[in-house]
Amino acid sequence: MTELLLRGGRPWTPGGELVAADLHIVDGRIAAVGPDLSAPEAETVDLDGALILPGLVDAHCHVDKTTWGAPWTSNPGGATLAERIANSERRRTALGIPSAEYAGNLLDTMVAGGTSHARSHVDIDPVLGLSGVEAVRAASQRHAGRIDVELVAFPQGGFVNRAGVRELMTEALAGGVEVIGGLDPAGYDNDPAGQLDVIFHLAERFGAKIDIHLHDGGTMGIWEFGLIIERTRALGMTGRVTISHAYALGQQPEDEQRRIADKLADAGVALVTCAVTESPVVPVKIMHAAGATMGLGNDGVRDLWAPYGDGDMLRRVGIVASRAKLVADADIELALAAGTYGGARILGVEDYGLAVGSKADFFVVDAPTPAAAVVGAPPRKLVVKGGRVVAGTEDRALVRG
C-alpha cells in the first residue's frame, strides 16, 4: 500500500468554498479530505495553505506535430488553412516529424505544468500512414503513469476527397485509436454530408468518440453545427461528440449564442476552444449558463503551423479567460472549470476531482485564489498523478510520518 498525506492545503471545487484541509491518498485515490488527518505511515508534506487544483486536461493538442526540444525551426507562415497544411506536409519529413522524441519532450513539459490528461489529434494521410499514431503512442508509453493521452485519428489534409484516407482512418480505429476526427466538412472537404456520414458511421462501428475541427465561420459554420447536432441526436451519441475551435459560435450575437448553446447542451455535444491568435473564442459564460460542456486546449505547440505555445495549460486557461473578457474571480473560475472538469467530461475521465474516492490527479500552487492562479500561472509546487508525485518545485519535500 502506498500513502501520501498533504497537510494544510486548500482544495478547489467549482462553486465551492476554499477551506483548509488535509488530503490522505491511498493506492492512487483520495481516501479522506478534512482537518487534522492522521496517517503515521504516509509520506507527508506540509502545504502551508497552498492551493490544490485538479489535474489540468488539455482537450485539444497536436503533440505529433511538435518540434519541442529540437533546434529552432523558422516558419514561413501562411494566411490560410490550406497554406499551413501544405507547409506542414512539405517540410515535416526533413525535420523528422512526427517524432516520438519531440512528442515525449512536450508531454514531459505538460506533466510539469500539472496536466494529467490530454487528447492529441494525430495526422493521418497516405504519406504518413499511421506513423504519427505510433510516435505518439511511444511517447505516451515513455510517460506512462505521469499523463494519460487519448488519440484522435485526424484527417488533416482532407477526408472524403483524399484517396486512401478513409481506409487509414478505419485501420487506426480498429487498432485502438479512441476518437475519430474531421476537418471543416463544408469549407475544406466541400462535402459536409459525405464527411459527417462517414465519421458517424465509423464512430458507430468502432464505438469511438468524435471530435471535429470546425474553423468554418459565419452562417456556414452555424449550419454545420446543426448537421452535427442532428446526427448526434439521431444516433444516440450524447456525450461522445465534440466540436473543436467552433469559430462560428464566437462570431454570433449573444441571443444566437444562447440559442445554440442550449441546443448543444440538449444534444450533449461539447465544444473546445483554444483562443489561438485572434480567432473567435467560444463564449465561456454563455456555455456555462446553458449547462453545455466546454473544454480547453493548447492546440499546436512549437510546430510547422506556428512557433508559439509552451504546453502550459494553466497559462492557456488564462489566455482563454482574457480573450473571453472574464474579469470577476467567479467568471475566471469558469475558464478554470473548463480546463479541468469540462475537459475531463469530454475525455470521459472517470472519478475525476478532489472528492473522496477520486483518482489522485492534482497539482499545488501558491496562490490566494483560483483566479489568481489562472492569471499568474505560478510555479507548480507539486504535481501528483495516481497518488504519486511526478513533478514540481518541491517534489523533494516529502517526509516520513
SSE inventory with pairings:
Elements: E1 3-11, E2 21-26, E3 29-34, E4 43-46, E5 51-54, E6 56-61, H1 81-91, H2 100-112, E7 115-123, H3 131-142, E8 148-154, H4 165-174, E9 179-183, H5 192-206, E10 209-213, H6 218-234, E11 241-244, H7 247-250, H8 254-267, E12 269-273, H9 284-290, E13 294-296, H10 313-323, H11 329-347, E14 362-365, H12 370-376, E15 382-385, E16 388-391, E17 399-400
Parallel strand pairs: 1-4, 1-5, 6-7, 7-8, 8-9, 9-10, 10-11, 11-12, 12-13
Antiparallel strand pairs: 1-2, 2-3, 4-17, 5-14, 14-15, 15-16
Description:
- This protein is of the alpha/beta class.
- The chain has twelve helices and 17 strands.
- The chain has helices at residues 81-91, 100-112, 131-142, 165-174, 192-206, 218-234, 247-250, 254-267, 284-290, 313-323, 329-347, 370-376; strands spanning 3-11, 21-26, 29-34, 43-46, 51-54, 56-61, 115-123, 148-154, 179-183, 209-213, 241-244, 269-273, 294-296, 362-365, 382-385, 388-391, 399-400.
- Strands 1, 2, 3, 4, 5, 14, 15, 16 and 17 form a nine-stranded mixed beta sheet that branches.
- Helix 6 packs parallel to helix 8.
- It is globular and about 65 Å long.
